[in-house]
Design a protein that fits this description.
Elements: E1 9-17, E2 33-34, E3 37-38, H1 39-50, E4 51-57, E5 70-71, H2 79-89, E6 94-99, H3 107-115, E7 122-127, E8 130-131, E9 136-139, H4 143-151, H5 157-161, E10 166-169, H6 178-181, H7 188-196, E11 203-207, H8 214-227, E12 232-236, H9 250-256, E13 261-265, E14 270-274, H10 284-291, E15 297-301, E16 310-314, E17 333-338, E18 348-350, H11 354-366
C-alpha cells in the first residue's frame, strides 16, 4: 500500500492519547511548548495528515475544538484503557494512536505502519528500548481481548500482544532518524535536554492554495528579514520529482553514473544534487538539520501537511475558504495574510504587510 504524503485514509481514525496525569513531569505535557507549538499540537497535526476524523482519548475538555471531542476513558488509569476507549469510539476499522509527549513525531513511521498492516490486528514499532504501544495502529479485532483483560484488571501491554496477530516494525524497517522520532518526554530533566538542544533554526511554512501569491509574500519576507540582518534559508516543496542537472550536462552525466551526491562549486555559490535513498523524501526536520543549521530562520513554501508553524496566504478572489481554518482546523497556524478583513483566532495581516509579519516572526521565534 503506497501512501501519498497528502492522502487521508478512509478506514483510519486518529486517536490522541491525553488521559495521563503527568505526575513525573509535574505539569501538563500536552501544553508544553517547543519551537512555537505545543506537543499536543504536534501530535494532532500528525494525526490529521492521515485521518479525516480525530478524537481525544481522555477527559480533556480543555483540548477540545471544533470537530475534535474528548472522551473519558472507559477504563481509566492505563495505556490499554486509553487504547480501548479510542478503538471503541472509532467508526472505522483501524485507529492510529499518538501520545501528547512525543516532541518529534514523524509521518514516515506512520507510512511504514500503514504499508504493513494487511493481515494483522496491530502494527507496533519495536526498538531495543522496547515497544511503542501508544504510537501504533490497532484494528477493531483487538476490542474483545482488550475488554476481557481490562475487566480482569489486567493492564500489561505485553500480555495483550501475546493474544493478537501483531506486526512489529524493527529498527531496520524504520526510516532514518527513528531514534529521535520515538523520543518520549516524561520528566523535567528530559524536557530540559530537549529545550537545550538547538540543532535547527526556527522554521515557518508559508502555505496557500495554488495561485494565491505565497511566493510573492515569501520574496517580501526574505527581503525584509535580510534587511534586518538575519541569515535566511528558503525551502520549496515539490510533490513531484524535479531535476536541476539537465540531460546532457556534465553534472547530469555524473549523477546518471551513480553519484549519490554531486556538487557544483564556483566562487559565488555551491549547488548540490543528493539522491534520496529508495526515492523516499526525508522529513523536513531532518533536511533542515542537515543543511540549514548555520541559519537564523528558514521560510518554506508549501509543506502544508507538516507540523511546523504556518502562515496562510489568502486571496478572496481565489477562494473564500481557508486551508487551515475552514477546510480543517490546523493547530499549527500562527497567522493569516489576506486581502480582506477576517475574524479568526490568530492574527490577520494585510497580504502585503511583510513588515508586520516579520515583526511577529521575530517576536515569537527570534527574540
Amino acid at each position: 500500500m503506497q501512501i501519498q504524503h497528502n492522502e487521508k485514509i478512509s478506514d483510519l481514525t486518529g486517536v490522541l492519547l491525553a488521559g495521563g496525569k503527568s505526575r513525573r513531569m509535574g505539569q501538563d505535557k500536552a501544553h508544553i511548548e517547543l519551537n512555537g507549538g505545543t506537543m499536543f499540537e504536534r501530535a494532532l497535526a500528525l494525526l490529521q495528515q492521515f485521518c479525516a476524523r480525530t478524537i481525544i482519548a481522555g477527559d480533556r475538555p480543555d483540548l477540545e475544538r471544533p470537530n475534535l471531542s474528548s472522551l473519558p476513558d472507559l477504563y481509566p488509569g492505563s495505556a490499554l484503557g486509553g487504547l480501548f476507549t479510542g478503538l471503541k469510539a472509532s467508526t472505522t476499522e483501524w485507529i492510529l494512536v499518538a501520545p501528547c509527549d512525543m516532541p518529534y513525531p514523524d509521518k514516515r513511521i506512520v507510512e511504514r505502519m500503514l504499508e504493513n498492516r494487511d493481515g494483522f490486528d496491530a502494527v507496533v514499532p519495536r526498538t531495543p528500548a522496547g515497544y511503542e504501544p501508544v504510537f501504533a495502529l490497532y484494528n477493531k479485532n483487538c476490542l474483545p481481548q482488550m475488554e476481557s483483560m481490562l475487566r480482569q484488571h489486567q493492564f500489561r501491554i505485553y500480555d495483550f500482544y501475546q493474544s493478537i496477530k501483531i506486526r512489529y516494525l524493527d529498527p531496520h524497517e524504520l526510516p532514518e532518524g527513528w531514534e529521535k522520532a520515538l523520543i518520549n518526554i516524561n520528566t523535567p530533566e528530559e524536557l530540559a535536554g530537549i529545550k537545550e538542544e538547538k540543532v535547527t533554526p526556527p522554521v515557518i511554512s508559508i502555505v496557500a492554495k495554488s495561485g494565491t501569491g505565497k511566493t510573492t509574500l515569501l520574496e517580501k519576507l526574505i527581503a525584509e528579514m535580510k534587511q534586518r540582518g538575519y541569515k535566511v534559508g528558503a525551502v520549496k516543496h515539490d510533490a513531484h520529482s524535479f531535476s536541476i542537472d539537465h540531460e546532457g550536462k556534465d553534472s547530469w552525466r555524473l549523477t546518471q553514473a551513480g553519484a549519490d551526491t554531486m556538487l557544483i562549486t564556483s566562487p559565488g555559490k555551491v549547488a548540490m544534487v543528493r539522491q534520496n535513498p529508495h526515492d523516499e523524501e526525508p522529513a523536513l526536520t531532518a533536511t533542515i538539520e542537515r543543511y540549514c543549521a548555520d541559519l537564523d530562520i528558514v521560510l518554506t513554501e508549501g509543506f502544508k501537511r507538516s507540523s511546523m508553524p504556518k502562515i496562510e496566504v489568502h486571496r478572496s478572489e481565489r477562494s473564500e475558504r481557508l486551508l487551515c481554518r475552514d477546510e480543517e482546523h490546523d493547530p499549527t497556524l500562527i497567522a493569516v495574510a489576506s486581502d480582506m478583513e477576517l475574524e479568526l483566532d490568530v492574527p490577520v495581516y494585510n497580504i502585503n504587510d511583510a513588515v508586520g509579519i516579520c515583526n511577529l516572526i521575530v517576536e515569537r521565534f527570534l527574540s
